[in-house]
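Researcher: We're teaching a course module on how sequence relates to structure. For the next exercise, students receive a sequence and then see the predicted structure as tokens, so they can try to spot secondary structure elements on their own. Here is the exercise chain.
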Amino acid sequence: MAPALRISVVLCTCDGQAYLAEQLSTLLTQSRLPDEVIIGDDDSTDGTWTIVQDFAVLARTRGVTVQAVRRPRRLGYVANFSASLAQSSGDLVFLCDQDDAWHPDKIATLAARFLADPALTFLHSDARLVTADGADMGCGLFEALELSAIERGLIDGGEALRVYLRRNIATGATAAFRRELLARALPVPSAWVHDAWIATLAAATGKVDFIDDPLIDYRQHDGNQIGMRSRTWRTRLAEFRMPRGDELRAAVARIDALDERLDTEGAPDGVQNDIDATRRHLERRLSIGTRAPLFRVPSVAWEWLTGAYTRFATGTRTALRDLLRKG
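Model: And here is the predicted structure for the students to work with:
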């Protein structure tokens, strides 16, 4: 019988008193309790720290170790997660947000998959989208993300990097990963959001998978750092005219940070080829945006005919955006 994997939950808080107590309570109603909970509070000014302290007392009575640190100055959620992750010691690390609610078998379900597959590096699940009051929105996270059959097939076929270089489909609150990944992942580069960085680095250096079952209630409210809602047709139409220059430059910066981190160990040829090809596509799209719409047609047509829009972006939708966007 394989030994049990030690579980760390890493949670970052900041002025989260509205929903934090509920989230913390779901950590202690897990069918498989965590072994330790790391909480980094980012200089909260409301009652968050009191809720954290009360939780720590209760958790310790259940045999759960709690390390809670209150930052003397605000770091921002990415730097706070980076510092908090460095404190974790479990074999598996679970990311946790302050405003969601975990389903009772979340830890047990993900841990079982890691036990069954020693090669698995990073795993994430679907989530049920709920309102601020916890009401079901009738939409799952993967549905809102429009996770495609092609993307699913790439991940199942061991080509997850092609998916995660294109866009992040792994929400941190649904994710867990092996401790070994932290040695490569920390510190989180400033160009990246922590969950996208960890998922992409895992796809570049190991095996990534997902679970279709929703294992958390992912609360949507005005205070979300990063939220997810199903888009309406009006939203989709408006997106075609939105400027994309800053977004593309940020994507190039993320690729450069990934390349630099992997360069310290030497990326496999296939991984390096994917990174280089993605960068070239992004740089060509940046160049397209500097031209008048009529003069974009040949370059957009070339990216389309060579399959670049399908491989590195969202296909027809991205091609149309490049034709119509303002910059």
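Model: If you want an answer key for the exercise: The chain has a mean pLDDT of 92. The longest strand covers residues 207-219.
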